[in-house]
TrEMBL record, chain A:
Keywords associated with the record: ATP-binding, Molybdenum, Nucleotide-binding, Transport
Domain Mop: 298-362
Entry annotated with the keyword Aminoacyl-tRNA synthetase: no
Transferase keyword on record: no
UniProt domain ABC transporter: residue ranges: 8-241
GO molecular function: ATP binding; ATP hydrolysis activity
Name of this chain's protein: ABC transporter
InterPro entries in UniProt: AAA+_ATPase, ABC_SmlMolc_Importer, ABC_transporter-like_ATP-bd, ABC_transporter-like_CS, Mo/tungstate-bd_C_term_dom, Mop_domain, P-loop_NTPase, Transp-assoc_OB_typ1
UniProtKB/TrEMBL annotation, chain B:
UniProt cross-references to PROSITE patterns, sorted A to Z: ABC_TM1
UniProt-listed CDD domains: TM_PBP2
Topology term for the membrane: Multi-pass membrane protein
Similarity-based family: Belongs to the binding-protein-dependent transport system permease family.
Limits of the ABC transmembrane type-1 domain: 26-222
Gene Ontology terms describing biological process: transmembrane transport
Xref: Gene3D superfamilies: MetI-like
Keyword set, alphabetical order: Membrane, Transmembrane, Transmembrane helix, Transport
Name of the featured protein: ABC transporter permease
Entries under InterPro entries matching the protein: ABC_perm_TupB-like, MetI-like, MetI-like_sf
Annotated GO CC locations: plasma membrane
Source species, domain of life: Bacteria
Compartments, record wording: Cell membrane
TrEMBL record, chain C:
Protein name: Tungsten ABC transporter substrate-binding protein
Keywords: Signal
PANTHER family cross-referenced by the UniProt entry: EXTRACELLULAR TUNGSTATE BINDING PROTEIN
Coiled-coil region(s): none
Entries under SUPFAM superfamilies matching the protein: Periplasmic binding protein-like II (SSF53850)
């Protein structure tokens, strides 16, 4: 059953707490170089799934786990397996010691010592721009620095798999951005598989090649970011991902950030920094899309498409329209304008949105 | 007033001329209470960590018992240890009554719950996810326990010092199980009581000054420790 | 968790072993240790600080002097927790001997009890011939009297004197029990300006160091004698006692050289001896 491309294969995983099942995953696997974004509401079991894979929560009977085709079935195998993984939790959880000691801790646990330890620790201190503060006490670090140390500590053991559980929550956007970039860079350099628990969809889009949606302890959807965002399998996923329109395109021109992308057979105007030839996701929020019966002549909207109303759904005072204009597009309209415009399902409208409403994210 | 003034003067003279008897008593106090603290450190931290890291039925009751034990009256301990160590008592064959070892045992019994209680509290005050983080770094159970102890070392040290401060200044148990035998089981507190009874206020004051000095040093270190913070 | 348990058990065992090795009882033969249960007055006067090292040097025994009241000392003897007693509570000692707890009771020395009080002597007892008269006057005047109340030899003597005077002082407002040793009770009486019964040795030793403001008001009656006996705890009752050591200590106490030291102890410091050696004498010769 094992295909060599799978790094990790898991089947029949259940975790119970207080009699109730909090995780029930018939099967889950992780391929070589997979970067999975794990999303879902609080209490969906995201953290528990990571801990279960590491053997840090007790799984129910019938669970089997194999790593590169070798079953992880004994205490010794489990420890060896756990030592192939690194995990970065929400809080930095540094030890009350120097930055150096913190980064060295995982290696010391593995019995690495002497010159080798020193070299490896310094390599990762430098990689995460921490060499200058090696001797500093972990108690005297800022929030961003502390998380950088916790990243370096995780990567220093040179894991074959790495898990992140909302590692950069509560940080200011620039710090968060810089840490995410560092994390991403090292993962790609090392070519390892990763799972990231996140609440940030753009982060999921930007970093991962796969999105897994977890709800109530079960996997509800598992696919590429675009598939999950654009084609949610059910109402829950749709509501959870917010029905943002996500389109894949190629940049044709970019003149002082005013750019045109080719999406399918159509062209979109957007504002962004991507260079011509680069692939990007275009994200369009439904509240920024307006619909009209006639083409909007006097509008500043650069993107105007003729569209068919595929589906209407009620969202309280608003209606959600799913449109087809050669690509899927979602729009919100008030009930009042829906009646005034005389819209019907299956009818034709013009959908328009500004170039600045298109948020491009570079695709890897 | 004269009495106090002369007493203090004489006390410092005894201290600075390194009076052999006074120094001997101080040294014995340090040795006995230090050893008792060492024992309570191993037992208290070991058992405290065990209780803090495991869950079992009756755990809350046990923790309450330990916390009660933190205020164990020394005379009660002295009485029970005496009964155990009597020649014709259950542990009489060890011939430990009226020896420094007997004081060490009694003081260990007093200090162990103190160290244990503080250990439990210190372990429970560590970030909840720290255990997961250490295991996620690849630690075995033993490595986990060791690293947690290392992380809690400051409050644990505070616990150890609280234990030491408690036993070096207690008198009830020391006099009951040690007997205040001259040059053998006479410690700072029992000697102070005796010298006061004998009217040797100068020696009593000298002994008190040494005891106060020890207590001050302990509290100074405690304060230093308590003013440090944990990392993020 | 098992590993932690094992670790903890291992450490505990190690510590217990260390403790045993550290204990001198393990290092020296058991017979070397001799538990002497005695009264606070012998210790507080400093006599034992002179005699015990001499005895240890002569015989090689290691003496653990446990200084408690005579009553408690005899209780220790009854339970076999002491090897030899040096006590001063003749009535209680006779009972102790009659019950077979002790052997070879030997007269060692005496000093005397004094009735002390504040210089202004509110109960007007100064110069009275007998303790009974003095106690009666104290009771009549309702003047503060401080009793040891600790079942010691002095306390036993005091109770006997109250009985002889036909007074039951317990519960009276002017009668307070300290529950403390001789030296401490003297300190309390000095602070509170009260009367008390004290042994001459402790009084002289203490008054020398710190003027107590208490004066000797009644003394000299044969009934006020304070007689010390050495008693060996009966090895037939308690096989674990160090009887050889007890016998050696008894022999030491009545030996002429020791008796000489007893007789001269305190002369240099106080101008008068604190104790009078009586070894070999009959108790009757002391006027009892």
């Amino acid at each position: 059953m094992t295909t060599p491309a799978q790094v990790l294969e898991l089947s029949g995983l259940t975790v119970r707490r207080g009699g109730a099942a909090i995780l029930d995953i018939p099967s889950f696997s992780l391929g070589e170089n997979d970067f999975v974004s794990l999303i879902g509401p609080n209490g969906a079991g995201k953290t528990t799934l990571l801990l279960a894979i590491m053997g840090l929560v007790e799984a129910g009977k019938g669970c089997s786990l194999s790593y590169r085709g070798t079953p992880v079935d004994s205490a010794a195998a489990q420890l060896a397996f756990r030592r192939r993984i690194a995990m970065v939790l929400q809080e930095p959880l540094l030890f009350d010691a120097t930055v150096y000691e913190n980064v060295a801790s995982g290696l010391k646990i593995r019995g690495v010592g002497g010159q080798e330890l020193k070299e490896r620790v310094y390599a990762y201190l430098e990689r995460f721009k921490l060499a200058e503060m090696a001797k500093r006490s972990a108690r005297k670090l800022s929030g961003g620095e502390a998380r950088r140390v916790s990243l370096a500590r995780a990567f220093a053991v040179e894991p074959e798999l790495i898990f992140f559980d909302e590692p950069f929550a509560n940080l200011d956007p620039p710090t968060r951005q810089s840490l995410t970039d560092d994390m991403d860079r090292v993962i790609r350099e090392r070519g390892i598989a990763a799972i990231l628990v996140t609440h940030d969809q753009s982060e999921a889009l930007r970093l991962s090649n796969r999105v897994v949606v977890l709800n109530g302890g079960s996997i509800v959807q598992d696919g590429t970011p675009a598939a999950v965002m654009n084609a949610p399998v059910n109402e829950f996923v749709a509501n959870f991902v917010g029905m943002e329109t996500i389109l894949e395109g190629v940049v044709l021109v970019n003149r002082e950030q005013q750019m045109t992308l080719k999406v399918g057979d159509l062209e979109l105007d957007a504002v962004g920094e991507q260079a011509p030839g680069e692939q990007a996701y275009c994200c369009i929020r439904p509240e920024n899309v307006t619909v009209s019966i006639d083409p909007p002549y006097s509008s500043s909207a650069r993107n105007v498409f003729k569209a068919r109303i595929v589906e209407t759904a009620s969202l309280g005072p608003l209606l959600r329209l799913r449109l087809d204009c050669g690509f899927p597009l979602t729009s919100y309209v008030t009930r009042e304008s829906f009646a005034k415009l005389g819209l019907v399902q299956g009818g034709t409208v013009f959908a328009s949105f500004k170039a600045s409403s298109v948020h491009p994210i570079t695709k890897r | 007033m004269d009495l106090i003034f002369d007493g203090i003067l004489q006390a410092f003279r005894l201290l600075f001329t390194l009076d052999r008897e006074v120094l001997g008593i101080a040294w014995l106090s340090l040795k006995v209470s230090g050893l008792a603290t060492l024992i309570s450190l191993v037992l208290g931290i070991g058992l405290g960590t065990l209780i803090a890291l495991t869950s079992f039925p009756g755990r809350k009751v046990l923790v309450s018992l330990v916390n009660t034990g933190m205020g164990l009256p020394p005379v009660v301990v002295g009485l029970f240890v005496s009964i155990l160590l009597w020649r014709n008592g259950p542990l009489g064959f060890l011939e430990l009554l009226y020896t420094p070892s007997a004081i060490v045992i009694a003081q260990s019994v007093i200090a162990t719950p103190i160290v244990m209680g503080i250990t439990i509290a210190a372990m429970q005050n560590l970030p909840a996810n720290l255990r997961l983080q250490i295991l996620a770094l690849g630690a075995t159970r033993t490595q986990l326990v060791w690293m947690l102890i290392k992380e809690a070392r400051l409050p644990l040290m505070a616990g150890v010092m609280a234990g030491f401060g408690g036993v070096i200044s207690e008198v009830g148990a020391s006099i009951m199980v040690g007997g205040n035998v001259k040059g053998y089981t006479r410690v700072l507190t029992t000697a102070t009581v005796m010298e006061t009874g004998r009217g040797n206020f100068d020696i009593a004051i000298a002994l008190s000054v040494i005891l106060l000095l020890f207590c001050f040093l302990i509290n100074y270190l405690l304060t230093l420790i308590q003013q440090r913070e944990r990392p993020r | 968790m098992n590993r932690i348990l094992k670790l903890a058990t291992g450490l505990m065992t190690c510590l217990m072993l260390t403790l045993l090795i550290l204990s001198p009882a393990g290092a020296a033969p058991a017979q070397k240790n001799l538990i002497l249960a005695t009264t606070t007055s012998t210790q507080d006067s400093g006599l034992l600080d002179v005699l015990v090292p001499m005895f240890e040097k002569q015989t090689g025994y290691f003496v653990k002097t446990i200084s408690v009241g005579s009553g408690q000392a005899m209780k220790m003897g009854e339970k076999g927790e002491a090897d030899v007693l040096l006590v001063h509570s003749p009535e209680a000692e006779k009972t102790f001997m009659a019950q077979g707890f002790g052997v070879n009771r030997r007269l060692v020395m005496h000093n005397d009890f004094l009735i002390l009080g504040p210089a202004n002597d509110p109960a007007k007892i100064r110069g009275l011939k007998t303790a009974a008269e003095a106690f009666k006057k104290i009771a009549q005047a309702g003047a503060l009297f401080l009793s040891r109340g600790d079942n010691s030899g002095t306390h036993a003597k005091e109770k006997g004197l109250w009985k002889a005077a036909g007074i039951a002082p317990e519960g009276q407002k002017w009668f307070q029990q300290t529950g403390l040793g001789m030296g401490e009770t003297l300190n309390v009486a000095a602070e509170k300006h009260g009367y008390l019964l004290a042994d001459r040795g402790t009084y002289l030793a203490l008054n020398k160091k710190r003027h107590l403001g208490l004066e000797i008001l009644v003394a000299g009656e044969p009934k006020l004698l304070n007689i010390y006996h050495v008693i060996e705890v009966n090895p037939a009752k308690w096989p674990k006692v160090n009887h050889a050591g007890a016998r050696a200590f008894g022999d030491f106490m009545v030996a002429p050289a020791t008796q000489g030291i007893v007789g001269s102890f305190g002369t240099k410091e106080f101008g008068a001896p604190l104790f009078f050696p009586d070894a070999g004498k009959k108790p009757e010769s002391l006027g009892l």
